[in-house]
TrEMBL record:
Residues 146-372 form the DNA methylase adenine-specific domain. This is Type II restriction endonuclease subunit M. GO terms for biological process: DNA restriction-modification system. Keywords: DNA-binding, Endonuclease, Hydrolase, Nuclease, Restriction system. Pfam families: N6_Mtase. It comes from Planomonospora parontospora. GO terms for molecular function: DNA binding; endonuclease activity; N-methyltransferase activity. Gene3D superfamilies: DNA methylase specificity domains, Vaccinia Virus protein VP39. The keyword Transcription does not apply.
Length: 635
């Protein structure tokens, strides 16, 4: 392998440069002996020299001129590692959106750095700003900023959880035309505010936990001419706009957050409808949104389907209905939420005003087949709450206020099974889930009991079979330019939510490393796929590739932690370094590691099968009671 020198590109980058698919690049590597060899990366994700690739493409007649935007992106990509890429992209985008950029570019590099202290943090930043500005002169600021955002999202598809433009446009379409101020308390990169924005007519207000994402959101809005105020911080625990009363609030909150601030926010005045249960973070976000809407203002929130029927949240749902805050729920197609593959719901609410009559109906809309019918159904309902349209039903409030207060649209729409074919579709989904579950059944062989000889991690570290590094116990996790994976993130299986700064003591995990909680307090272990900065109370395990398979290590540590958690006293916090790993041949470890990965897929399939089965049970029960279904005479 050649040594890495100068800008590098991935196979996907090469495909974009040449205007072909990735399969074509793989074919070139096999067919052409003179195709440039990798200069870095891994066997599964190699890196190539940009200069060598460009020369080869030109020699083959596959590239006439390197596109300006791709050249800029390769300069950006090679100027920042994975941990700092969003910071650099957001600073370049903010520079392109700067009102005085053209004037500033006439000055020297030192003057530009002095004028933009928040955007210039390294020696390479000013040349990159000049390159981005040059592209903006040709393509325009909006297209340039969107190019940078799109490339970042493609490079970090696993990290970027953004509402699709289609769903964002749908949510914005529910906003009344006279709304002059729109708020998103979890605005990410600004997608919902962009959809609802109108240059010169709408002021966009947003808050975002990640400071770099907030900066990028502000830039994306600015280049569109949308007046915006975007601030960084956790909206639940650190409200940046305590006095805000917006005309409309749009939000796609994090789903199923355990650490949303339950203890510290128990007496918060925002909980006008009741203290959200610890496991119902979404209800905290809904109430936060209502608190920041003006009286009579709209609230539109993307919600997980389970939030409509969980028993723990039924009292708050009841209060939403009794006060007239909840006006409609829209069932969307699967995959409409970036947080989950399940079919989410849109909750349409209105902050009650003094003297408002309590609505007598709540609209239920089925938009699982097509989102196009949702807005017309809502507008028809606003004009006449008793008017029904295809795929929707105005449900009397009294019918919703039973013991369960289940607001799932499928339970209330007229003739859901017989008319819409709900039972048939759900049976197909269940059979497909069962088939997937059957395909993923663990392939194992029963053998006479043979205890595996296991060695403590500390002993393996002494022999050099792996290395163990513990992160500092005390670290700043609330601010800084780097995303930090916290122990809670690891336990909940989510992306990094902490923020920290580079400096002495920072531990960075790389591909193939294994991360576990340092105290072993929860059965969690993960194999790192890309560079990740680690927060406090974590243990990084770096296996020697010739001694251990990382998925074998993670699987055994996770299973061992689960056993320890089930048998140890509640106050006990075992040291993860005392956990043990079996010593097996590497080939056998890889078979174990593959099976551990398949078990994770099996668990996901088992969950989907259960959800499909529960949905089918409810549809059949409702259909039998409503007279839409009858027992099969041949059965």
């Amino acid at each position: 392998m050649a040594t890495q020198e100068g800008p590098t590109v991935t196979s996907g980058d090469i495909a974009r440069l040449a205007g072909v698919g990735r399969a074509a690049v793989s074919n070139w590597r096999r067919r052409f002996g003179d195709f440039p060899g990798p200069v870095g990366g891994t066997a599964s994700s190699p890196l190539f020299s940009l200069a060598e690739v460009e020369a080869w493409l030109r020699a083959q007649g596959k590239l006439e001129e390197l596109p300006e935007d791709e050249l800029l992106w390769q300069q950006v990509r090679n100027s920042a590692d994975d941990l700092r890429l969003l910071s650099l992209v957001s600073r370049l985008a903010a520079a392109v959106a700067h009102r005085r950029l053209r004037t500033l570019l006439e000055a020297g590099d030192a003057e530009i750095a002095d004028a933009l202290p928040d955007l210039v943090v390294g020696d390479e930043d000013v040349p990159l700003i000049r390159a981005a500005a040059a592209l903006a002169e040709v393509r325009g600021p909006e297209e340039t900023v969107e190019f940078l955002y799109t490339r970042y999202a493609q490079a970090h598809a696993r990290r970027v959880q953004a509402v699709s433009p289609e769903v964002a446009d749908l949510m914005a379409a529910f906003v009344e035309p006279r709304a002059a101020e729109v708020f998103d308390p979890s605005c990410g990169h600004g997608g919902l505010l962009i959809a609802a924005g109108d240059p010169g007519a709408v002021r966009a207000v947003g808050q975002e936990r990640d400071g770099d994402a907030a900066r990028l959101a502000g830039a994306r809005l600015a280049v569109r001419g949308i007046t915006a105020d975007i601030r960084r911080g956790d909206a639940l625990t650190g409200d940046a706009f305590p006095l805000l009363q917006a005309d409309a609030v749009l939000c796609s909150p994090p789903f199923s957050e355990r650490g949303w601030g339950y203890e510290e926010l128990a007496g918060d005045p925002r909980w006008q409808y009741g203290l959200p249960p610890r496991g119902e973070s979404e209800l905290a976000w809904v109430q936060h949104c209502l608190a920041h809407a003006r009286p009579g203002g709209q609230v539109i929130v993307l919600m997980p389907p389970a939030a409509a029927g969980r028993r723990s949240g039924r009292r708050i749902r009841s209060r939403f209905i009794r006060t007239g805050a909840l006006r409609a729920i829209v069932a969307l197609p699967p995959g409409s939420a970036p947080q989950s593959a399940m079919p989410p719901h849109l909750w349409l609410l209105r902050r009650p005003d003094d003297g408002d009559p309590i609505p007598t109906h709540v609209l239920m809309i089925d938009a699982t087949e097509s989102r196009d019918s949702a807005v017309p159904a809502w507008r028809s309902f606003v004009e006449d709450p008793r008017r029904e349209t295809a795929g929707s039903r105005a449900v009397p409030v009294i019918d919703l206020l039973d013991e369960d207060v289940d607001l799932t649209p499928a339970r209330h729409l007229a003739r859901p099974a017989a008319v819409a074919g709900g039972v048939g579709r759900t049976v197909d989904e269940l059979l497909a889930a069962v088939a997937e579950l059957t395909r993923l059944l663990p392939s194992v062989t029963e053998t006479p009991h043979r205890p595996l000889v296991a060695v403590p991690l500390s002993e393996l570290a002494r022999t050099g079979a792996l290395s163990v590094v513990q992160t500092p116990g005390r670290m700043e996790t609330g601010r800084g330019e780097l995303a930090l994976l916290t122990a809670e993130d690891l336990i909940l299986g989510r992306a990094a939510t902490g923020r920290g700064a580079d400096g002495p003591g920072l531990v960075v995990a790389g591909p193939g490393d294994v991360v576990v909680p340092a105290t072993g307090r929860a059965p969690a272990a993960a194999v790192v796929e890309e560079e990740t900065a680690l927060g406090p109370h974590l243990l990084l395990i770096r296996p020697d590739p010739g001694s251990f398979d990382p998925h074998f290590v993670a699987g055994f540590l996770r299973a061992s932690a689960a056993r320890a958690a089930g048998s140890a006293p509640s106050a006990s916090r075992p040291d993860a370094r005392r956990m043990r790993l079996p010593r097996l041949p590497l080939a056998e470890q890889r078979r174990y590691g593959q099976l551990f990965r398949e078990l994770d897929l099996f668990a996901d399939a088992l969950r989907r099968t259960g959800e499909a089965g529960e949905l089918l049970r409810g549809l059949v029960l409702d259909g039998l009671v409503d007279g839409d279904l009858r027992p099969d005479p041949s059965g």
